[in-house]
Design a protein that fits this description.
The protein is built from six helices and eight strands. It is an alpha/beta fold. The protein has one domain. The strands form four sheets. It has a two-stranded parallel ribbon. Strand 6 and strand 7 form a beta hairpin. Helix 4 packs parallel to helix 5. The longest helix has 18 residues. It is globular. The two termini are about 15 Å apart. The model has no long low-confidence stretch (mean pLDDT about 95).
Length: about 150
């Protein structure tokens, strides 16, 4: 499973993609499963930026934090729904590895924005990354994938 935006699909909150050229040949050979948990959870493109507030994706899964937009809208339910869709898909297809977009409130593997909407970064996981790790998947950020291949 690969964050759809990393394949250049315009699924980011701002309606853009951020393609990693090294992933495109794998996608062309059908070796990757593109997925955007935010879109799968029912959010539109474009959409207001969102950040984990009060904790990271682990805390969101445990009900101790929320995901909110810069306008104060609580979008936790959509992020949880998208993460659940990702989990159902990886179980159904037997996916064991994911490459996800660092800093995303859904897909951040090691780092996310801190909830202040000032661009500050903190250690933590996005909601989908946290759920896939709980399931036992090997989850890499795009930065790790670029370093390690």
């Amino acid at each position: 499973m690969v964050s759809a935006c990393l394949l250049g699909l315009p699924t980011r909150y701002d309606g853009k993609g951020c393609a990693l050229p090294g992933l495109l040949p794998l996608a062309a050979r059908g070796k990757v499963l593109p997925f955007c948990p935010e879109v799968a959870g029912g959010l539109v493109i474009p959409r207001p930026p969102a950040e984990c507030c009060g904790g990271d994706g682990e805390a969101v899964l445990d009900g101790r934090a929320r995901v909110c937009t810069a306008h104060g809208e609580d979008v936790t339910a959509a992020f949880l729904a998208g993460a659940q869709q990702a989990l159902l898909l990886v179980r159904r297809l037997g996916v064991r590895r994911a490459i996800l977009k660092e800093y995303s409130p859904s897909c951040g593997v090691h780092w996310i924005h801190d909830g202040s909407f000032r661009g500050d970064i903190v250690r933590g996981r996005g909601v989908t990354a946290a759920l896939l790790l709980r399931e036992g998947l090997v989850v890499h950020s795009e930065e790790e994938w670029l370093r390690e291949g």
